[in-house]
Amino acid sequence: MDIVKIGIIGLIGAVLATTLSGEKGYSILISMATGLVLFFIILPLYSDVFNVFNYLGDNIGIDSRYVMVLLKAIGIAYISTFSAQLCRDFGQNSIADKIELGGKVIILINAMTIVNELIEEMTGFIM
Amino acid sequence: MKKIIFIIFIAFLVGKNVYANEVNEVIDYNFFELDEVIEEKIDLSFNELIKKYMAGEDVYESIKESFFNKVKGELFYNNDYIKNIVLISIISALINILIADLKDKSVCELVSLIGQIMVIGLATASFKSSIFLLINSLNDVLDIINSAIPFIIMFISASGRIYGGALMTFGTSIVASGIQRVIVPILAFELLIKIVNIISKKNLLNKLSNLFSLCIKWGLKIFSYGFMFLVGIERISGGSINKFVGNYFKGVIKMVPIIGDVFSGASDIAIGVISGVKNGTALLIMVVIFLIVIVPILKIAIVGFTYKMIAGFLEPICEKQIIEIIDVVGNSTFLVLSALFLISFMFFISCGITLCGV
Question: B129 in contact with A at a CB cutoff of 8 Å?
């Protein structure tokens, strides 16, 4: 029962962070550690979703490049948002914004192969 | 009147010089090429068919068999694209659900834009194959007409009169060139503008895309009315035709988008032309021509209908933009269908009128 595990870890993290809120820096460290533990528990769960998409790619005849680009985009979106959120917890909004920007740029670079294909397709279409 | 129009066609539009010594070209005409074209189109050897017919064998069974084989093999030629579009749309919808809770909404929009780009790429590639199908059909019609010009001139010289088949054939050739050079590029631009309009979400190019649609519709209607004018000159009518059959054909032709209304009156003419073909061999040729022209029409009609169906089925789960893109490609495919139907119908009638004189 992953959700029970996730709930308990989240609850323990919250209680500890609140209890140690008087101690300088501990509260932030605990919330960061809890966040990281939760992230690494949740991440493998996504592999099941990815496996389903890969199955679609391999067995139904859908082009796997498209599926990979979409999956990479979700992964990058999650990691960048999670990291940015952690930075915001530390009060570092400026760094958080930069991380999000980096995430968007990487998603765009990742999608460039598809965009290139589209441009070539459309150019060939008009010509 | 007919003579004047015919002279105008010959002098200004067709512009092909024919001299007495070209008779050799007619005699040396490679009929096997024509047979190869027919074999490629409907998997049927026309020479064999004629031989069987002459021997009194059942040719219609082999025609039926090869037609259904062709239909089974090629009708769903766009299957891979359509399958990919459906699956990418569904995956894109699932991914949008997965990332909907992210606080940074611009990242969500970026990921959903990637999904849209993929659908656009696949839909454009699919539409391009429909356009190629139209262009190939137009080229086939033009090739056949160009190769038939010496025969037509020979008929005119031999009979000493201008017969309607020649007029219709040259008219078909002009319409085929017009569609290829004017309608097809506008069709491509119209689709691209509509797609850009949908992605922009602000409908900034709405008026321009409507203008292009109007140009295509008017272009096709002008060509259709031109065809009806030529038919009017020829004075073909289906007065003695069974009313039930007439109404049935009228209903079928009315289903064709844009030009269906204009052509519904021509259904009598089509039946009249078929009734006018008295010779058994000529009727067999008409059946083969019908099969050649009907396969691409069926292919494009099925693709257009499939797009509409996908848009309908995916509407509850997919993003609005993706559904609109699929719907727009369906509409454009129906425009391709109208253009293809126009030229195929004209070609069929031209061949019918020509064969009526045989």
Answer: no
